[in-house]
Structures are given as structure tokens and as C-alpha cells.
Amino acid sequence: MAESADRHPRIGVIDDHEISILGVEHMLSTADDLEFAGGAPTVDDLLATTHGVTLAVLDLRLPDGSSPRANVEALHAHGIDTLVYTSAEDPFLVRSAASADVLGVVRKSSPAAVVLEAIRTAARGESVPTMDWAAAIDADESFVVDLSPRQREVLELYASGESAARVAELTYLAVDTVNMYLDRIRVKYANAGRPAKTKTDLYKRAVEDGFLPMPRRDPAS
């Protein structure tokens, strides 16, 4: 997103760990060309409380169970670019974010100078070429399964706990048709090297691909 000459990019941080937000704020305080706009534990909270953000520094695992893809799309809808800032312990989440058109991925374990330069580059609307992001993009074709809108609808309902009969009722399909869709979905995942033989497997794949929200974490954990 282009910035006017008299305004510095405003950086918002979305992370449920306050220490991470404070860390980025401190890094930005050393830069005279970037401005810390605020931090929040979820995308909704940031959008509700912080204005004028031009770049979001986004953690992938948030307390509201939102998927990386949904978060990036919500930020894009408000004209906000995204840089993923993560420990990268879950490659599925990194790939989900990469498929949603983020500007890059930077590890929290990176030196402060590296993180700051990544933020500066992303704030200019430029891609941040890190190994984590490159690996996610390279793996994207084999990772993300291409489902039709109808297949996705069936998967979302069935994987979230509905029976095949209930899915048929909700989608105005025959039960046999629903089962046919599920069979085709399983074949697609198997061909991608991500087998989904059970209903639990399908739920996991739906979460990994951002079709369903991640389970909420226990706040005490």
C-alpha cells in the first residue's frame, strides 16, 4: 500500500502474547521511518481499536481460533497488507497464510535487525523473500487441495460434526450425492499426499486449509 510522502507507515501487531507486541514496538521505536500503531490479540480487536494501520504484523495462532487465511483476507478487506511473524512451528499454518497472499514470513527467533528490515520492506508493499515463505509457496500446489465451492460446503458441514444425512438436508442434496462428494474430497486429499480416511482426518484437513477455524486454545495454557 503506497504511503504519502509526509506520513510514515503505521504498523499494527496482532499477537496474543503481550511480550511479542512489546518487542515489535521496541524495535519500531528505533526506526525513524516507521510508526507503531498499536497491538491486539485478534484481527477484530485491532480493527476495532487501532486506526490508520497500513501493515499488520500477524501471528498465525490466535486465541479466537481464526484461520490465517481468514485473518489475512479480513485485513486485505480493510486495505491492510500483512507480514507473518511466527515461530513457524506449524508449517500448515504458514502455508495457509502464504496461500492468502501475505508479503512474507519472518521468524520470531530472527535477530531484531532482520525483523525490522522485513517490516520496513513489507511496509513499502514489497515481498520479503525468506526461506520459510519460499518453502510455503513452493509447497503450495501440493498442499492446498482445490475444492469446488460445493465440495467445500459439504466438507465444512460434515467435518464440523454434521452427519451425511444432515448435510444432505442443509444443502438440498441426496445423501448418496453427499457421500459421493466426500469420496471425491478424500481422493483429492490422498492424491495430495494428505490422506483423510476418517471424519477426524477431514476435520484436520479443513482446519489446515483454512476452511474451518482452528480450535480455541485454553487461555490458561
Automatic annotation (TrEMBL):
Keywords tagged on the record: DNA-binding, Phosphoprotein
Tagged with keyword Phosphoprotein: yes
Top-rank lineage group of the source organism: Bacteria
Annotated PROSITE patterns: HTH_LUXR_1, RESPONSE_REGULATORY
Cited InterPro entries: CheY-like_superfamily, Sig_transdc_resp-reg_C-effctor, Sig_transdc_resp-reg_receiver, Tscrpt_reg_LuxR_C, WalR-like, WH-like_DNA-bd_sf
Residue positions, PTM 4-aspartylphosphate: 59
Keyword Phosphoprotein appears in the UniProt entry: yes
Domain Response regulatory: 10-123
Protein name: Two component transcriptional regulator, LuxR family
